Amino acid sequence: MKILKTIFAILLISISAVSCSSDDKDNTPKFNVENPLATYYTQTGFSTVTNFLNSGDYEFGLVFTPTVKGNIKAITLKLPATNPTVRVTIWDYASKTVLRSETLNVATADVQVTKEISVLALVKDKKYMITMNSNDWYTRSKADKSNAVYPIVAGNITINEYRWLAGTTQTFPTTVSADYNAGDLSFDFQQTE
Question: Which residues lie across from 137 on neighbouring strands?
Fold first, then answer.
């Protein structure tokens, strides 16, 4: 009888250990965080950089489409001057409505700032735009000033075009330019499924 109780106790402990260890496993797929900006510049050939300082106020940025479902987790920005209150906007492209507005503090010129934000879920194959409003920026273009060929595929993000509009208001940019990009503005994206 004592042997039977011992065997029963060992079986219970074994079953407990197996069930606990399977509960501890996280089977959620893990995806890398992506930032499409460097790939975008490589793919466009925009390697010539010019600094613009106090050059008039503009709302400008990139139209993009995620090819998978995912989240924006942070905004990244680098400027050739300091600015404690750079407004960054993420837009729904189709409805031209603001999905998120954030203020970034660029405390040091020529140093990238990353601001973590509350997660913004993006829908696969839906168009969005990220813009900033500034009077300081980098302009990147090809040495021969020719147009980039869009769309640009940068991992799980497709860059559709670059847009801009003069002024300080938070207004959806309407002018499209293919021969340059102004502003080192981007975001950290992580696929969720």
Answer: 52
Dihedral of the alpha carbons of 180, 184, 185, 190, in degrees to the nearest 10: 110
Residue 113 near residue 104, CB atoms below 8 Å:
yes
Q: pLDDT tens digits for 47-65?
A: 999 999 999 999 999 999 9
Residue 182 resides in a domain: yes
Neighbours of 179 (CB within 10 A): 14
Could you tell me the residue range of the domain that residue 104 belongs to? 33-191
Question: What is the value of pTM for the model shown?
Answer: 0.84
Percent residues over pLDDT 70 in the chain:
85
By the 10 Å C-beta count (0-12 exposed, 13-18 middle, 19+ buried), 77 is classed as buried
Number of domain units in the chain:
1
Q: Structure tokens of 1?
A: 């009888």
Q: Is 18 domain-assigned? A: no
Residue 78 sits in a domain whose CATH number is 2.60.120
- Predicted confidence (pLDDT) per residue in 62-89, tens digit: 999 999 999 999 999 999 999 999 999 9
